[in-house]
Amino acid sequence: MLNVKAMQDARTLADGTTLAFRKQIRMAAWRYRLERLARTSSRLAWAVAAALLVLLLVALILVSGTWLFPLALTVVFAGVAVGLGILEARVDRHRLLVRMDAHAKLPDVILSAGDWESAPRDPWRERQRTEALQLLSKLDWKQIWPIHWPRLLWLPLVTTFLLMAVLWKVQMDWVKKQWQAQVAMQQENAPANAEQLKPLEQVFQDWDEAQKVAPSPELAELLKQIKPMRDQMASGQMTEKQVLLKMNDIQARLQAAKDKLEASSLEPMAQSLADAVKDLDGMSGLAAALQRKDFAAAKEQAAQAQQKYESGAAKMPEGANAQTASDRLGEAAQKASSDPQASSSLSQMQNAVSNKDSSSMSKGLSGLKDSLAQQSQKQSQCHNLSLQLAQMGQCKNGMCNGSGIKMGMPQLSLAKSMQPSKGAGSTVDPNRYGAATQLDANHQEMKITGTAGQGASETQTESTKDPHFEQTASNVNSAQFAAYEKLSEEATQDENLPVADRQMIKRYFEDIRPQGNQ
Amino acid sequence: MSTTPAPVEAATPLHEHGPSIEEIEQSAVHFRARFDLLKAEVQKFIVGQDDIVEHVITAMIAGGHVLLEGVPGLGKTMLVRSIASALSLNFQRIQFTPDLMPADLIGTNVLIDDGKGHPRFEFSQGPIFCNMLLGDEINRATPKTQSALLEAMQERTVTVAGQTRVLAEPFFVLATQNPLEMEGTYPLPEAQLDRFFFKLRVPYPTSAQFESILDRTTERSSPVLQPVFAGDDLVFMGDFARGVPIAPSVRQRVVEVIMATHPETELASAEVKKYVRYGASPRAGQALILAAKIRAVREGRFHVATEDIFAFAEAVLRHRVMLSFEAQADGITIEQLLANSFKELRQRWEK
Hints:
The structure holds two protein chains of two kinds. Helix content of chain A is 71%, strand content 2%. By secondary structure, chain A is an all-alpha fold. Chain A has three domains: 4-184, no CATH class; 192-416, no CATH class; 473-518. In chain A, strands 1-2 form a two-stranded antiparallel sheet. Chain A is rod-shaped and about 160 Å long. Chain B is α/β, with parallel strands linked by helices. Chain B folds into two domains: 21-101 and 128-217, P-loop containing nucleotide triphosphate hydrolases (Rossmann fold), CATH 3.40.50.300; 243-351, Magnesium chelatase subunit I, C-Terminal domain (Helicase, Ruva Protein, domain 3). Chain B has helices at residues 21-42, 50-62, 76-86, 102-106, 143-147, 149-155, 190-194, 207-218, 231-242, 248-259, 270-275, 282-298, 306-317, 325-329, 334-350, and strands at residues 65-69, 87-88, 91-95, 107-113, 119-125, 132-136, 157-160, 163-166, 172-177, 196-201, 229-230, 276-278, 322-323. In chain B, the strands form five sheets. Chain B has a five-stranded parallel beta sheet with strand order 3-6-9-1-10. In chain B, strands 2-11 form a two-stranded parallel ribbon. In chain B, α1 packs across α2 and α2 packs across α12 (282-298). The longest helix of chain B has 22 residues, at 21-42. At the A-B interface, α1, α3, α4 and α5 of A face α1 and α10 of B.
């Protein structure tokens, strides 16, 4: 006889049991996964922290490598990925069932029921499945299967966070420096545009104009030499650095020409010449002109004096005056040895004074006049060269301010200086070539201390009257610049710095270089 | 998800002719009641020895034979006699001696004169034709006599003069033996040892138990044991216990327990590889599962658990695992070896 009731029970139990099993096993599987992660979390976190520490040490030792922080991030993400992998890794069903039994203190109840899920139905197995399900439904997994996370897990996690922060700081400082150096290098290697080169071109155009106003073979030669550079500038092929180097060349060439002219100049001994001729009759104007170092005027005065001696209108010195004049002329002749013609003329004048020979004096003055004419021309050339050097310096100064040549707009003009103007040459600037400015300020520093507010208050006034040179920044700069420059050169040569950084340091010192005699 | 169980199978009817769950549960209750009743009856006379009594009853329900080992005077024989008294079984006792012959055990054909001048051979049954045979001090007999039990124990038949005779059902051999170190003993052959379901070591009683023993055995009136149920019920209980299912995972563990005693397998521990000559036979696995099933029912479970296996593993394997001479030289006992092996297996399963 068929056991219908048992069949019905079995059918009901079979479906219900299986579905309930699925649900319960899924819940327990999460506990299993979390437990597995908790068991390995501490080791995993310490491994990540150790890897980050190694990377940080590498970063501190190498001080380079933008890849370190991304690598550190990769390590952290890898750690997280491993953690997720552990969490999501396959759960062995058999082990899960065993663990469920162990936590619920059910001796192989769930394991057996799980094993028989797909087995043929029989009362024994159904009874077992039912029993297992009933037991499972009463279980609170959170209570019977607690997840114990390591107590000191926070330590590697905090360590990891701190290491990442330090690594970020180290790397970002380095990256920032690299980026700045790269930008500087790009700027340096970038072709200078027309806007940047406009001031320099204006200087060159000024020189062209000057050549037209007063043609000069030296200036013509210089313009010829800078022609290729100007062409390159016009075609935009020159970088800022190349322009600066070319400007240095031009400056060096101008300075050499100026030095050559100054070597044969009578300016240093102009006072001696003035002293030698000041007591001679008809030569007071010549002496005054020489004293002013105005060789053009001196030439005119020498011509007038020559006419006087030639016509006999001027008297030769006599007695002790003659001897004194002769000695001074001899001394001046020796000092003017850099100009053979002037020296010869002065010797002739010395002889003329000794012999009281007016015609010989006239001839000597004639030679001196020619020499003074040449000196006048050299003085003019020297002035022009100084002006050109100043123009170049102005352009370079603008470039060294860090914003290209824009700020170096030429304010000086060689052409304008050559154009004759009303009253030109009538006066001479006593500080034309930039002698040190004498500060004559009466500095007084006051310091007032006291309590502000209503009513009577105590105040104190201190006055100091310091020497003005101690108050002048340029003096301090001058005193310390040499030391700083030496230090910077040593640093830039000895230290392993990028080229662009080195150039920046040089520029900085170029910026703070005291101008002239300050 | 990897833990997704097998798909839900279509609901199939239970055993159409089989017992219902309620019937099974009812049978299980009866099983436990009878087991407890028998045990209680035996323990009227036997003081302590709970494990020994339970093991012996379990072996009898499983239809197995038991070898009891212990020094003389620990109540081995009394235990067997008590069990026999508590069951309505035909009980025979043989005192094994060195001069005991196989024929003395199983019987022999004797020439009989029917009084009409026609002599004929007639089989004279030996004491083995019973339900419960107590082989006292079995290791005092020669191996030849011991081996006479082989066929009876395994096939439950006796063959004499080419004629096989079936023994009564149920048939149990409960043998006792003295430790081998004692004088005048012969070790049982391995083949015969394997036929014993359990080998139990009877421990010395505790002080309290000893006092109780002295009280019970020196008073005027001693307990009288009454049969609690018949031998057929024992067979029924065994049949019922065989229905207890065992999960594949647990069955696999049984296999691993047995294989771990074989030094040539990967499951064997280093200690087993070193000290074991050869491991347990498949009969050990059968005995283990049968005993575990009976224990499961006793514990009120409807499946075999791992703890059921370990509850009997030592008794099942103790006489089936042969130690090497090296083990004997190093003083390694089979109990130590098995305990370590079980410990390793448990650790492996818990991973």
